[in-house]
C-alpha cells in the first residue's frame, strides 16, 4: 500500500490569496529608505552649513560688521552681568556646584566684555595706523600703533608719545580704552561685597506665650478661697527681690538662632491677659491723731508730741479693712493691703525718709487684671517686648444680666473686644445673637468697657456671643490665691529704724521698696512695675490650663549675603561706551576707503607692503637697533594709488 505524499480535501470556495498585503518585502523597503535618510543627514546639514558660510563670511568681512557685532556682544555681556547681580542682590550665596562661585561668574562676564571690546579696539587702532600714514610720518610710528593694538603696555607707550605735533587723537582714544579694558577684572571684583545677613527659616516653629484667660491656682482652702499657684508665688518673689529683665526662656520657644520677628499691625503683635498697676500720691488723705506721748532728740536738742497717722479710705473703700496705722516715732515705713473694688489687691504705704524727718508721704497702688498689647521681637537671643497698651478687665456682669450664668461666678473678671490681633493682623470680632461653636457669652456692658462694680442697677440686660479669642478673663480661684499672697507680704508690715537711726530692719520686701531711704514716687512705680511684669509672665506662661497659647513668628538665621556696589558698574559701562564711540570715529575717519583696502590688523598687508626708500635698500638692516635707527630717521606715507600697496619715503 502506497501512502500519498500529500492529500487535498475540498473545503468549499476560498478567497484568493492576497500576496501584496502580507508580503515581507514592504517593511524591508521602509527600513532601507529610513536608513538611507539617516545616512545622508550629515551631508544635508553640511550643505546647509556650507551655504550659510558662503553667505555670511563676505558679510562678516565687509566693512566693520565684525567689530560692530563685537561691541554689541560686549554690551550684551554687560547686561548679563547686571541681570545676574540684580537676581542675587541682598540674597544668600547661591547653592551652585562647589567649583562655581559668584566671583567666577562675574569674572566670566568681565572676560566676555573685555574680549568683545578688545576686537573692536585692536582692529580700530590698526586701521588708524594706516590712516595715520596717509601723510608723511616717521616709520617708527608703525611699531607704536602695532604695539598699541596688541595690549595695554603698547597703548600706554602710544599715549606717552601723543603730542600736538603727533595728533593721532582717535588712536589715542582707542589706546586709552585698551588700558581701561585691562582693568576690567579689578573693577568687576569690586562689584560684589559679602556680608552677614539674616534670612527667614520658614520651617521653624517659633512662638511667644500669650493667653486669653488665667485660671491657675493652688489647692482649695475654702468655698471661695484657694492657695496661691506656686509659680505665681515664685514670680512675685522674683519681681520684688531680684527682678529679671530677660524672660526669653520663659515666654518664647523655638527661636534657636536668637533672631525672630513677629507679624504686627502698627507695631502691635499680640494681646494677652496680664497684671497691671496704678499708683497715686494720697498724702492729702492722711489724718494725724495726736497722743499724750512726747519725744525728744538729744543730738539736735529738739522735742515734740508724738502722733499716729491714719490713712483715711478713698471713696468706696471700707476703712476697717485698711488697718494701716503708722507711728511718728518708731516706724519709717508701714504698708497695708486689702482687696478693693475690681482689684486683685490694693497696697497702701506711708513712709518717712529719715529718722529725724517727721514729714511723711502716702502712696496708694492698685494691682488688677488687664488686657495688655505688646510689640515683640527677639534680637541676639534676647526677647524685647514693648507694652503698647494696658486696659483694665472689669467685673464680669454675665451673672447680673442673666440667671443662666453657669460657671460665670468663677470668673469675676471678663472683657470682650470688637477687634483682636490674629497673627499680627487686626481683625474684626464678629459677634452673634445666639450661642454657637467656639463662641463665649459676654454681657453687653463688658464689651470694650471695664465696669468696676458688680452692682449696676441700670446695666443693659443683654448678652452677646463673641469668638473665644476676643474674650479675656481672669478666674476667681487664681485671684483669691494671688490676693492672699500679696496680703501676706504687705498687710500691716513695718520697717524699723535701727539704733541711732543707722539703717533699718524688717522684711526683705519692704527693704527693697524703701531703698535705704531713697524711696520716691518714681521708685515705687518701678517697684510695682517689676512686680506686675513678673506676675504677667506667669499668667502668660501657664495660661488657661497650664499650657499657654502662642503667637507665631519667623526665625531668621545668619548667612552670607551679597551686597552689590553699583557705582563700580559704571566702569565697564563707560569702557563699552567709549569703545563704541571709538569705533564710530574710526569708521568716519576711514569712510572714503574701499572695503577691500580696510587692512586693519592684517599681517598680510604688512608683508605685501613695499617700502620705497633708497637708504633702506642700500643698508638692508637685519638688526633690531639698526631697524629702529633707520625708522626714526625715515618719514614715509602710504601711496594713494588704489592699485598698489606701497610706503613712499618723503
Query: What is the distance, rounded to the nearest whole angstrom, between the alpha carbons of the first and last residues?
Result: 126 Å
Structural class: alpha+beta
Number of helices: 19
Structural shape: elongated
Q: Number of DSSP strands?
A: 25
Largest sheet: 11 strands, antiparallel
Mean pLDDT: 79
Strand content: 25-35%
Helix content: 25-40%
- Unreliable spans are 1-22, 313-330
Question: What is Rg?
Answer: 49 Å
Pfam family, one: DUF3176
Transmembrane segments: 69-88, 100-122, 167-186, 566-588
Keywords: Membrane, Transmembrane, Transmembrane helix
Task: Describe this protein with a few key phrases.
single chain; 650 residues; alpha+beta; 37% helix
Topology:
Elements: H1 19-22, H2 25-61, H3 65-88, H4 102-132, E1 137-138, H5 141-148, H6 152-160, H7 169-182, H8 184-189, E2 192-210, E3 213-214, H9 230-241, H10 248-251, E4 252-253, E5 260-261, E6 270-281, E7 286-297, E8 302-311, H11 319-322, E9 325-327, E10 331-338, E11 345-351, E12 361-379, E13 382-392, H12 398-401, E14 413-416, E15 419-422, E16 425-428, E17 439-443, E18 463-467, E19 471-474, H13 476-490, E20 493-497, E21 504-505, H14 508-514, H15 521-542, E22 549-564, H16 570-589, H17 603-607, E23 610-612, H18 614-619, H19 624-633, E24 635-638, E25 646-649
Parallel strand pairs: 3-19, 23-25
Antiparallel strand pairs: 1-24, 2-4, 2-22, 5-12, 5-22, 6-12, 7-8, 8-9, 10-11, 10-20, 11-12, 12-13, 14-19, 15-16, 17-18, 20-21, 24-25
Amino acid at each position: 500500500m502506497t501512502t500519498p505524499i500529500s492529500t487535498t480535501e475540498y473545503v468549499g470556495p476560498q478567497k484568493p490569496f492576497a500576496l501584496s498585503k502580507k508580503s515581507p518585502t514592504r517593511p524591508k523597503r521602509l527600513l532601507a529608505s529610513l536608513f538611507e535618510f539617516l545616512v545622508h543627514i550629515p551631508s544635508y546639514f553640511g550643505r546647509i552649513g556650507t551655504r550659510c558660510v558662503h553667505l555670511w563670511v563676505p558679510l562678516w568681512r565687509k566693512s566693520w560688521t565684525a567689530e560692530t557685532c563685537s561691541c554689541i556682544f560686549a554690551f550684551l555681556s554687560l547686561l548679563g552681568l547686571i541681570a545676574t547681580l540684580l537676581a542675587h542682590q541682598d540674597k544668600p550665596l547661591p547653592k551652585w556646584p562647589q567649583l562655581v562661585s559668584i566671583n567666577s561668574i562675574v569674572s566670566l562676564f568681565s572676560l566676555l566684555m573685555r574680549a568683545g571690546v578688545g576686537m573692536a579696539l585692536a582692529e580700530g587702532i590698526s586701521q588708524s595706523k594706516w590712516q595715520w600714514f596717509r601723510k608723511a610720518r616717521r616709520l617708527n610710528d608703525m611699531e607704536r600703533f602695532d604695539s598699541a593694538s596688541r595690549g595695554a603696555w603698547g597703548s600706554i607707550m602710544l599715549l606717552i608719545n601723543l603730542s600736538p605735533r603727533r595728533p593721532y587723537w582717535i588712536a589715542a582714544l582707542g589706546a586709552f580704552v585698551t588700558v581701561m579694558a585691562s582693568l576690567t577684572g579689578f573693577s568687576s571684583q569690586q562689584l560684589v561685597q559679602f556680608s552677614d545677613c539674616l534670612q527667614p527659616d520658614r520651617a521653624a516653629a517659633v512662638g511667644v506665650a500669650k493667653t486669653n484667660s488665667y485660671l491657675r491656682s493652688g489647692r482649695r482652702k475654702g468655698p471661695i478661697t484657694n492657695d496661691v499657684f506656686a509659680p505665681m508665688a515664685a514670680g512675685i518673689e522674683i519681681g520684688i527681690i531680684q527682678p529679671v529683665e530677660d524672660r526669653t526662656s520663659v515666654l518664647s520657644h523655638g527661636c534657636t538662632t536668637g533672631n525672630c520677628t513677629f507679624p504686627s499691625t502698627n507695631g502691635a503683635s499680640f494681646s494677652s491677659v496680664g497684671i497691671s498697676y496704678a499708683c497715686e500720691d494720697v498724702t492729702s488723705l492722711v489724718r494725724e491723731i495726736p497722743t499724750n506721748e512726747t519725744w525728744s532728740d538729744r543730738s539736735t536738742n529738739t522735742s515734740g508730741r508724738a502722733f499716729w497717722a491714719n490713712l483715711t479710705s478713698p471713696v468706696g473703700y471700707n476703712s476697717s479693712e485698711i488697718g494701716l496705722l503708722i507711728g511718728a516715732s518708731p516706724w519709717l515705713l508701714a504698708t497695708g493691703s486689702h482687696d478693693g473694688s475690681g482689684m486683685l489687691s490694693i497696697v497702701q504705704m506711708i513712709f518717712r525718709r529719715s529718722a529725724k524727718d517727721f514729714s511723711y508721704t502716702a502712696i496708694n497702688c492698685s494691682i488688677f487684671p488687664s488686657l495688655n498689647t505688646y510689640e515683640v521681637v527677639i534680637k541676639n537671643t534676647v526677647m524685647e517686648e514693648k507694652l503698647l497698651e494696658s486696659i483694665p478687665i472689669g467685673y464680669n456682669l454675665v451673672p447680673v444680666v442673666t440667671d443662666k450664668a453657669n460657671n460665670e461666678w468663677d470668673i469675676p473678671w471678663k472683657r470682650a473686644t470688637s477687634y483682636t490681633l490674629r497673627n499680627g493682623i487686626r481683625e474684626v470680632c464678629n459677634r452673634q445673637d445666639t450661642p454657637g461653636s467656639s463662641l463665649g457669652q459676654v454681657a453687653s456692658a463688658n464689651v470694650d468697657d471695664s465696669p468696676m462694680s458688680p452692682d449696676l442697677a441700670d446695666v443693659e440686660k443683654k448678652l452677646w456671643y463673641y469668638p473665644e479669642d476676643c474674650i479675656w478673663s481672669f478666674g476667681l480661684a487664681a485671684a483669691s490665691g494671688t490676693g492672699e499672697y500679696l496680703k501676706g507680704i504687705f498687710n500691716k508690715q513695718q520697717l524699723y529704724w535701727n539704733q541711732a537711726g543707722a539703717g533699718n530692719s524688717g522684711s526683705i520686701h519692704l527693704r527693697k521698696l524703701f531703698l535705704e531711704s531713697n524711696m520716691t514716687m518714681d521708685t515705687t512705680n518701678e517697684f510695682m512695675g517689676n512686680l506686675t511684669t513678673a506676675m504677667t509672665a506667669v499668667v502668660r506662661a501657664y495660661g488657661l490650663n497650664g499650657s499657654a497659647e502662642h503667637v507665631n513668628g519667623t526665625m531668621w538665621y545668619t548667612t552670607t549675603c551679597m551686597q552689590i556696589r553699583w557705582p563700580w558698574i559704571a566702569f565697564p559701562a563707560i569702557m563699552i561706551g567709549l569703545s563704541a564711540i571709538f569705533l564710530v570715529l574710526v569708521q568716519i575717519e576711514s569712510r572714503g576707503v574701499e572695503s577691500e583696502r580696510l587692512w586693519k590688523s592684517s599681517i598680510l598687508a604688512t608683508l605685501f607692503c613695499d617700502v620705497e626708500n633708497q637708504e633702506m635698500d642700500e643698508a638692508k638692516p637685519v638688526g633690531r637697533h639698526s631697524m629702529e635707527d633707520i625708522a626714526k630717521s625715515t618719514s614715509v606715507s602710504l601711496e594713494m594709488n588704489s592699485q598698489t600697496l606701497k610706503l613712499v619715503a618723503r
